[in-house]
Amino acid sequence: MRGTLSYLKWPLIVTALGLVLAAFIGWRFNGQTGAISFFLIAGVLAVLEISLSFDNAIVNANKLQTMRPEWQRRFLTWGILIAVFGMRVIFPLLVVVIAARIGPISAVNLAATQPAEYARLIHEAHLPIAAFGGSFLMLVALNYFFDQSKEVDWIGAFERWLRAFGSVRGMEIGFVLVTVLVFVWLLPPEDEATFMYSAIWGVVTYLGVDALGAVLDRWGASHTGAAQAGLGGFLYLEVLDASFSFDGVIGAFALTQNLFLIAIGLGIGAMYVRSMTVMLVEKGTLAEFRYLENGAFWSILVLSVVMFAQTMWKIPEAATGLLGAGFIGTAFVSSLLWNRRNGD
At what angle do helices 171-186 and 292-309 cross, to 10 degrees? Predict the structure, then answer.
């Protein structure tokens, strides 16, 4: 089994290259002052991404444990390209293309020459993005807590109560739809249709990816050596990562309006999250810390509610990150205490 430092090899290389590139871009914009500013902002964005996505790493590790080693490697290689270029570059551009009804080349020019207008268009698309991501992540969390085969309860009585709902088929979908209706009732009339339409698409996407994953993995398992085995899990993890990245991409514009700097900073953070995921799998950390997975899913559930709430109120990304870190940190301490009580 590799040492901990070996997992940091590529993240550290990407960090060095990314920070140098950020400083170079800043220098081209505003000399030495710009270089220092862009260097620092890229570092802050990387920390922001790691803090917002640590729970994502734990959930990813849980899924990766069921995947073959080659698909684990593909998640770290192909997956990081999708995460960085797909969600941190292509996705914001597509938002602008759709919102402004312009071509992709024009969107790139807009990001490079009119960053303020680019940022405004991204922020205007926040409501449907938050509705989609909120419903998707809420289903991810509830599917865990309603799972009848779940054996470990952290918040004992409450988690057992939630698991009892799992005996009712489709209960998690009904819970999400009721939550969506509550927020539709609270939202201004002009936002109701957009919110509901986007939230429903989040539910449909979750169900579609889950069904496709089950079909592909079942097909792959029945064909020895078939490449499709593990593809379903890979697709699920990529959509999950996309849902987590929405908040980080939107929040990054509070620090800078430069698309390329955002891609560098969030890309550095995403690389650490991916490496952290593989380390959790190979070192068996989830098994060692009994309640860590529970804390991650509580963090996801809270994040989904926060994303819904962001459609009405301004909630700082720092607060979101602290909430997630709080659940995971508390679960980590609870795991240590359990290990001590049970002689582990």
Answer: 30
Q: Cα 176 vs. chain centroid, distance in angstroms?
A: 19
Give the separation between CA 51 and CA 303, rounded to whole angstroms.
12
Closest of 96, 131, 138, 104 to residue 253, by C-alpha: 96
Residue pointed to by tokens 């024009």: 106
Q: At what angle do helices 189-221 and 126-145 cross, to 10 degrees?
A: 50
Which residues touch 26 (CB under 8 Å, ≥6 apart)? 34, 35, 36, 37, 38, 39, 261
Structure tokens at 135: 């419903």
Length of the chain: 344
Query: How is residue 145 written in tokens?
Result: 């807590």
DSSP single-letter state for residue 83: I
- Do residues 215 and 232 touch, judged by C-beta distance below 8 A? yes
Average pLDDT rounded to a whole number, residues 127-136:
85
Residue in the block written with tokens 């988690």: 159
What's the DSSP call for residue 89? I
Which of helix, strand or coil describes residue 82?
helix
pLDDT of residue 99: 63
CA-nearest of 309, 315, 307, 311 to 190 is 311
CA distance 41 to 93: 21
Q: Which residue has the tokens 């409450």?
A: 158
For the four alpha carbons of 242, 272, 310 and 328, in that order, the dihedral sign comes to positive
Distance CA 306, CA 134 (A): 8
Distance CA 175, CA 112 (A): 43
Decide: 179 and 150 in contact? Cβ < 8 Å. no
pLDDT band at 226 (very low <50, low <70, confident <90, very high): very low
Among 51-55, 281-285, 322-326, which stretch is predicted with the lowest mean pLDDT?
Answer: 51-55
Q: What are the pLDDT digits (tens) for 168-204?
A: 888 889 999 999 999 999 999 999 999 999 899 889 9
Q: Which two tokens stand for residue 96?
A: 């602008």
**Nearest-CA neighbor of 300 among 156, 144, 191, 72?**
144
